[in-house]
Amino acid sequence: MNQSPFGSHSVQPLGQHITVDIFEASNLVGEKHIEDMMVDCANAAKATILKTHLHPFETNGGVSGMIILAESHISIHTWPEYHFAAMDIFMCGDANPELCLSVIEQCFKPKKMVINTLTRGGNVNRLGQFEPLLNPQLNTTLKTA
Question: Which is the catalytic residue, given 72, 75, 83, 100?
Fold first, then answer.
């Protein structure tokens, strides 16, 4: 249980946002392959998929994609020519975006990932009251294969 800056006890953040920069990665082309990875992420996080849309780019083979979730979204942009991809994973409710990280790592086999985690909006206390998080903390994790 966390102590909020307002002095009452918080029990659940409104949302968790994770950005993942994926360096020296492979498997960054192929719309279906990347869509399957994003669906696996949503399933691992116990999120509910509402809609998917991916767009392949002919110039470099990169892919941009978005999955809309009942709990928010997962997005990706790949740059195969730089062996790099960027993903945003934002989830609220009981879905856990951190459970996507092993799926991402298994798919792209990166040599390095930089993960930023941000609590969005605020917390809901035991009484069901929303407490805004006015000074969010950004936590960075460097994960090297």
Answer: 72
Which uninterrupted H or E stretch holds 19?
Answer: strand 9-23
* Tokens linked to 52: 């998917």
Which of 4, 73, 75, 77 is an active site residue? Answer: 77
pLDDT at 88: 98
Q: H or E element: which one contains 32?
A: helix 31-44
Residue pLDDT, tens place only, 66-125? 999 999 999 999 999 999 999 999 999 889 999 999 999 999 999 999 999 988 888 778
pTM: 0.85
DSSP class of residue 134? S
Residue 72 annotated among the catalytic residues of the structure: yes
> How far apart (Å, rounded) are the C-alpha atoms in residues 93 and 129?
15
Write down the catalytic residue from 10, 17, 92, 100. Answer: 92
Question: In the predicted model, what is the mean pLDDT of the chain?
Answer: 89
Q: 82-112 as b/e, with b when 16 or more CB fall inside 10 Å?
A: ebbbebbbbbbeebebebbbebbbebbebee
